[in-house]
Amino acid sequence: MKYGILCLLACLFVLPSRAAETAPLPVAATSTASHAVIEAGKHLGEKACVHRFEKLRAGAVKTEKGWNVQDFASGFFNPHREAITVTMKMKMVSDDPKFVFSNGQVGTFTKTYQIRPMHSRTDNIYLGSPTVSHFRGQWPVTLKTNFTGSLEFSSSKPFYYYMLRETDIGEKSDATDAY
Predict the structure, then answer these.
(1) 90 contacts 142 by C-beta, under 8 angstroms
(2) Each residue of 164-173: pLDDT tens digit?
(3) pTM summary value
(4) Domains in the chain: boundaries
């Protein structure tokens, strides 16, 4: 009798989690129509060597109402027993092919991350406030500039990547307040 009850309880907890693991996750769409480009047979949240995203926006645009600001961030997890190197490449897709990233790179921003074994890391994209100027050069998009384009993270070993969704659009007369 006890064995039967334990089996029933196990089925109640394991089967729903199994279904959740195999069900494809929806690709998030925002007001800027960002979306993920995923290898065939892969789902969001699975570990892979390459994670690509397109039609992303991070930064500030001057409008008649003041400033229109949006941002996104990234999170990664290294599931291995040794450190891995993850490379980020951001490619500009906009009217300004001479867009300058915070580190002086033009058109494409490249950054590498060393991630310790069984550790995670997060990183932001837009430096939207002068109060965090000590991150200048580390975050790709500087104050009062705007990035629209693609993003790719890659490593020689599979890792987990999570897009921390784009923020809602902020609009204020001051760029920092909009951020």
Answers:
(1) no
(2) 766 778 888 8
(3) 0.69
(4) 28-178
